[in-house]
Amino acid sequence: MPFDFDAAIHKQYDIVPLDPSFIPSKEVAKPHILWVGCSDSLTLETFTLAISQEEVFVHRNLGNILSNGDLSSESAVAWAVELLKVEHIVVCGHYGCALTKSDDPKALYGWSKDITRLHKMNDEFLGKFKDKYDERYREHRLEEIYTLAEAGWLRRQPIVKKAIQERGLQIHAFVYDRETNSAVRLVEIDDGKREI
After folding, report:
1. 23-40: pLDDT as tens digits
2. Residue list for the binding site
3. pTM of this prediction?
4. Domain span holding position 181
């Protein structure tokens, strides 16, 4: 299923401080969380969430990308959802990510093509508010909508959709902030009324 750029750029969401006990520890040596993070984020899953290493299955790549057809990412999701039967999937971006800052469409042989397009759309969308938003806000917003878009893309994948319907698998979007050494949770709002 393709990346929905228009929906991504118009997402409405709240930014909520992340309580480390948001996903409670089960205190067992079995993964119940799939963590999809960026290779250079320096985010420690066991610091961000109060869990042990044995409770999380970690997949990292440049830009926490799931939607570009990468076999490694698809395999990690399939393994975690179908074999490990994880109860939570966290897509965790981070502010200041070099990949989301780049707007070069040729960068990394197409690895970041979706981010590049979203970067351009974000600038166009915020262009009408030039006096209201500074560069830091633009960068933070891009990372947030990108992370939400990857989580949304993941929700639409058949094996994930089935696990959500049949056993209540939950998908979460987090963004880590190096400056504060803390993470936030991105909570989508449907029609400005209801969390999804």
Report:
1. 999 999 999 999 999 987
2. 38, 40, 94, 97
3. 0.86
4. 5-195
